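From the pipeline queue, job 12 of 40. The input is one protein chain; the requested action is below.

Action: predict structure.
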Amino acid sequence: MAPVEMTSLGRAPPQLAGGWEAGLLLFLVLLYVGGVVANPTFFASTGALHALLRDTSRVGIIAVGMTFVIVNKDLDLSVGSTYGIVAVVFARLFSPSFLDLGITASVVLCLLLGMAIGLLNGVLVTILKAPAFIATLTILFIGRGFVLALTHGQAIYYSGKAGEFPLFFHLGEINVLGFNNQILVFASVAAFGAFVLGKTRWGYETLATGGNEQAAVYAGIPTRWVRIRAYLISSLCATLAALLSAAQDKGVTPLYGVSWELTVIASVVIGGASILGGRGRVLGSCLGAAVVVLIDKVLREGWPITRIVVIDGENIAVNARFTLPAGAVLVFLGLLLVTAVLIEPYLIRRQVAGRFWAWLRGRPPPPAYEMSGVALEGVQTKGAMASDLALTANGFGKFLARRDALAIILTVLLWLTGLALRPDYWWNLSNTFAILLNYTELALITVGLTYVIAAGDIDLSVGAVLALSGSTAAYFLKVLGADPITAVAMGLLVGMAAGLVNATVTVGFKLPAFIATLGMFYIARGLAAWFVAGQQLTGWPESYNLLGRKANDVLLHFGLSLPPGFLRTVAEVVSVQTIWMFFVALMAGLVLAYTPFGLKVLSTGGNLRAAAYAGINTHRVRFLALLLSALCASMAGIINVAYFRSFNPVAGQFRELDAIASVIIGGGSIFGGYGTIIGSLAGAAAITLVRALLQLNVQGFTMPQHWINVFIGVILIVAVLVDIWVRQANIFGRMRSYLARRGQASEATHAR
């Protein structure tokens, strides 16, 4: 018998560090040298290096926890708001102006809060099966609302009391060795995290779960607990970073943690972790954090220049510093996130660096990583249970079985609630249409987003695209003095360009839609602030403002006057934007419900693989859906500027949250495959009425705006859970069946 030939699988991949980390370290050195050349006044000093390491410490600590989540093939968008809310809660617990607790009680309560947030994220994603980006995005918005509400938009300081507890607050100060203690804490957390992920059973279970969860289950790994554990680690790391920040600053501002989730995710992906799960190292994430923080510092610090100032007719050279305008750093962070995620499939998985090094040495190239994975993909169409119920129902039950019936009923109940609370305000026709004006902007965004969600994607950038389109129109009107038609055209063009980037990156480069549109969320928001230099613009021709005026105002502008009567009364309360919104909604509804393209959208979202087998060009369908979403958001931005007769860089803030909630409440499935325009419009009406009711002055009480955003975030997550468990899993039907079987079994027992 011939001996069996043994083949070598090659050397196992390094578990703690490898070639990618060495390349990052080299890039970091070269980048710092570039900073020294660009701004020697700052970067050539030892203080700059110390500041870089200190600021990297907090980002790096959070990146350690995020590594466990991303390696698990999950995502945690809530780390920035967790960082912010823990710092704010610590300030309110510890500050003499508030609860005035001791340092031990304050720290312990903050650690418990961090654990609670991580546990909530883990339960939502694993047990309640909410998509990770939706669950953690909702917690992000809720947490941000809590930060603003608890601080009332003001900073909280406690430097006086901090002197009574030197042991804790020394963590944020320089030690006897000459460096900040946060650096030492960061090094300890990084070393411990690297050891756990690379050398322990916890790390093995995390890598196995992210690489192939199905196979991990077959191997006996408790994957649900592994994923919950990762969220707990991530949240606790964000909590530790917040406590270090509290020790350093001895206070907190409402801006703590803003956009940090973007910085941390980019750090982990630049560090070599795969957004598809199954691969990542803590050391790489820490080096990635240093790279991101260093680039951010180079951009923020700028570079020295010389300005010529004329004083009394004499030219005097003045040393100055050139820095990027408002919003530019936010644009960079968005671009960095998208670029970092593109590095993974096109450089890391294809072993470009390793293959080039092998070619230089004349050796065989290393094998490329598996591109598609081996996990079995489900091929079931989401939401089929609700469709079956609608087909078998009769009479009014047929309406109740519709997925959008809940939104329609909820809208009616909310309107009746407002009528009962404030009939003097609610029954007034002009006030009713004032509420409708607030509804128009959200409804327009929701129309486009319905197509995206029905096609199985998501667009997190709609609010930012609204701001980008509005800022472009305002810039052309105010700064360039363009006519209204040109301003509208340029606003739509820039908004559509953002949609084109979203569609190209999502469909062409095959990035997850939530990552591509999350990047655009920051890019568009930064560009919107950049165009207007972070300032509010106002004052342009009234002919442009007609887009946001009442129909009767438009007629009077053109010299037309309606005779007194019903038609004139309606024209005095109905806005042009409302008429346009209903026209767009009507056309979109007809296309989605009655045309082949609408059927293709629903088929693509319901089962992408089956739709492709049926001959549907699913790439084109998803591409056009994302373009339509950007177009609707752009139209809303154009109208926003006309309605308010000004532009504010915060326009459209939290609109993505409202719009997603509207579609889900209106019967759309977060997993795709279902959606109706009438349901989404009803969902948008429900959200608008909830906001109106919460802002309603009832016996002198009005809900503060920041708490309203928290409330809307809760509505979104409840709507998603209802979609998953009530509409798709038919949990109530299963409970009825279970009880019926128990009843039959009991009767059979008694019959014996």
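Job complete. The longest strand covers residues 303-311.
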